[in-house]
Amino acid sequence: MFAERWFYDLIMYIYALSLLFAFSDIMQSSRRARRLARFFLVTVWFFQTVFFTWRVSQFFPKLVGVDSLLFYSWALVTASLVIHYLYRMDFIVFAVNLLSFGFLATNLYITPKAGLSLTEPLLSELVFIHATLAFLAYALFSLSAVCAGFYLIGNYMLKQKKWNRMLRRLPSLGRLQLFSYHLNILGVPLLISAIILGLVWASEKMAGGFWYDPKILGSFIVLIFYCIYLYQRFVRGWNGQRLAWWSVISFFTIVLNYLISNAGMSFHQWL
């Protein structure tokens, strides 16, 4: 247990170093700082991969809160590295990893009993697949919200005619909006699949009262918000600021849903 905690803390420290160098590069462009940030981020990804793979091999399916957060963070780190190597979007990469680091750090406070295993009724490979799909969807929605947030910032700066370094290093508004839109398209079917698998498992293992679980109701609210996003884009032709704001608002339903699951109000506390 001590070794696990030490390794987890090591990941956090290296992650913090990566963010510090990335922030330094953003404030004052530095090739050396950029390289160090990338090196430490790749190191974080490698250690997260090793740590999560080890936990899955040792404890599957007895996974706990720290595992779900670690997988969510790993998905964001992986996506940010892909974005960096394909598109060189430094601001997007920094913001995504800042979000990932924040969620990973909350495990130290929100789930202090993360070392406890799940109770026997919750152990199931189906639950593992359900949680994996859900957190992949959340990672995609998080990336979409970051792109939408930078769209709003860039749009505001253009209207105010603030031609500074940050605006020059941002991707075009059209690219940001397209990224946000495509990420949401990918995330919605993943979330639908996760909900369906969760309901199938719950109907077989639990009484009908699971329908009143706050986490399940919250998941449906999240899905409704993102389905409305796609409806507004496909059918009503929403574009620009309205669509970006809806993406950001939808992301906050995910945050609220996560907080509910860790507030002792749901049997999903381990998620």
From TrEMBL:
Keywords per UniProt: Membrane, Transmembrane, Transmembrane helix
GO biological process, one term: cytochrome complex assembly
Molecular function terms from GO: heme binding
Location in or out of the cell: Membrane
Signal peptide extent: none
InterPro entries in alphabetical order: Cyt_c_assembly, Cyt_c_biogenesis_CcsA/CcmC
Cellular component annotations (GO), alphabetically ordered: plasma membrane
Topology versus the membrane: Multi-pass membrane protein
One Pfam family linked to the record: Cytochrom_C_asm
PANTHER family in alphabetical order: HEME EXPORTER PROTEIN C, PROTEIN HEMX
Protein's recorded name: HemX family protein
